[in-house]
Amino acid sequence: MINQLANLNWISVIIAFVVYNVIGALWFTLFFSKPYKMALGKENETLPNNPIFIAGPAICTFVVTLTFAILLYALNIRSLGDAIGLSLLIGTGFLVANTTNIAINPNIPRPILYSIISGTYHLVGIMLVGVILVMMR
């Protein structure tokens, strides 16, 4: 599968990554800022804005986007319907499930709310990635 790196449309990978990343920035700072803070038990606090909280998610989002692109090419997915199907499979089976698993720990006071906010972001993000990658293939 790794041999697919040579076949990727890297411009589409970068565009998909940027869209996924920008949606994340808006999701957690503008669209769902208050519920996200509630999920973390920090509704009356300003969340830290350290470089790790910006660079870390961006790096992870790039890895997810690249991995998805490799799978899309390895599975020879070319239709929008198939890309959405793969997005739903990966989004639900890996991203949402893993987000929920991470949320269920004693450090997150409202794990279900956290899972809904973060999991939905990842599902929407990977759907956009799938659409962009297949449309630009």
Automatic annotation (TrEMBL):
Protein name: DUF1761 domain-containing protein
UniProt keyword list: Membrane, Transmembrane, Transmembrane helix
Segments crossing the lipid bilayer: 7-32, 52-74, 86-106, 112-136
One Pfam entry name: DUF1761
InterPro entries hit by this protein: DUF1761 (IPR013879)
Residue ranges of coiled coil: none
Origin superkingdom: Bacteria
